[in-house]
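Module 6 notes. Inverse folding takes a fixed backbone as the condition and produces residue identities as the prediction. Think of it as a translation problem where the source language is geometry and the target language is the twenty amino acids. Below is one complete input and output pair. Work through it position by position during the lab.
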């Protein structure tokens, strides 16, 4: 009795929630631009501008760049040079984009959505625009091409500031955490992408291809792109809808069938035991399933009875097997066994 009431209350709460909330695909978790994310974006942008200003005015950060360059880490630890030559590939645009696109393409096919691939394309486009513009706008030369000791090497036709390897590692591996479906997976992937991008940035400093300030600015540039992605979610959703509409029109022109939405399902609500028929719960409106949403959980149609209302089936005769050596008390007779079909 109590179990039936609890089940009925849970179903009522589920249907009330479905009536209040707008329909949204069950497999898409659209992140929102929360206050915490806005604060983090503002702090990262301030850090980005501070690094640029510190390099422009040739501050202590530029002197630290030269000290690290003269230290020559690749000569201090030559035994790890071969490994880091391969590890730095995790920050190259081509190989990382292919690997991440293959995984997100498989997810898009399984989930029947284009959001993972469109999000990756949006992030890479933002990366090329922002980081590319900063590189060619500031024109800084790398450590191997520096001309004046102690200078910031700005506006000399270089393309090293910020570090493209570092920013690309932050974006391509961080997009996996951004699109994670569970909070636990998001935490683990965020930590993994942070460690990977940190290692890629330090590897470029070890190899002498970037200044330390280049890596710091690359981390900030990649993080800014990840933090700004929720602002582009409406554009991604519109692009996905437009691509699906274009696919449907192409199928119509080719004479192929267009996938239709699923048949609406009317959920059946259990009636508490003992409630009169006239006071039964009103029927809910059917919830139609669209291409991007799944139908709500429902019970199979038909009358439902509780376990206590079902007629118990009692077997005929005794369940105790007969024993030949069982002796009856004196003065009693052996009872007749019931006839059973055999």
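Target side of the pair, the amino acids:
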């Amino acid at each position: 009795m109590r179990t039936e009431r609890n089940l009925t209350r849970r179903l009522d709460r589920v249907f009330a929630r479905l009536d209040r909330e707008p329909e949204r695909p069950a497999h898409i978790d659209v992140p929102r631009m929360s206050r915490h994310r806005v604060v983090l974006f503002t702090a990262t942008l301030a850090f980005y501008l501070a690094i640029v200003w510190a390099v422009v005015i040739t501050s202590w950060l530029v002197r630290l760049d030269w000290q690290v360059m003269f230290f020559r880490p690749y000569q201090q630890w030559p035994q790890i040079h071969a490994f880091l030559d391969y590890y730095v590939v995790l920050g190259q645009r081509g190989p990382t984009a292919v690997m991440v696109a293959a995984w997100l393409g498989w997810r898009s096919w399984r989930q029947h959505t284009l959001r993972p691939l469109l999000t990756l394309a949006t992030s890479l486009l933002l990366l090329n625009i922002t980081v590319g513009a900063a590189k060619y706008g500031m024109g800084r030369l790398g450590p191997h091409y520096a001309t004046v000791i102690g200078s910031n090497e700005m506006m000399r036709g270089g393309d090293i500031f910020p570090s493209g390897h570092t920013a690309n590692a932050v974006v391509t591996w961080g997009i996996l955490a951004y699109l994670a479906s569970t909070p636990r997976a998001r935490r683990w992937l965020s930590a993994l992408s942070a460690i990977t991008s940190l290692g890629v940035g330090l590897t470029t400093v070890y190899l002498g291809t970037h200044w330390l300030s280049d890596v710091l600015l690359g981390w900030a540039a990649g993080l800014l792109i990840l933090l700004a992605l929720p602002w582009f979610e409406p554009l991604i959703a519109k692009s996905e809808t437009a691509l699906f509409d274009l696919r449907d029109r192409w199928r119509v022109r080719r004479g192929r069938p267009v996938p239709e939405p699923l048949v609406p399902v009317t959920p059946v609500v259990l009636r508490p035991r003992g409630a009169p028929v006239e006071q039964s719960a009103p029927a809910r409106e059917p919830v139609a399933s669209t291409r991007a949403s799944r139908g709500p959980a429902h019970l199979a149609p038909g009358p439902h009875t509780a376990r206590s209302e079902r007629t118990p089936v009692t077997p005929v005769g005794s369940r105790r097997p007969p024993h030949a050596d069982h002796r009856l008390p004196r003065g009693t007779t052996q009872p007749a066994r019931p006839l059973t079909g055999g």
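Reference fact for the lab report: DSSP finds eleven helices and no strands in the chain.
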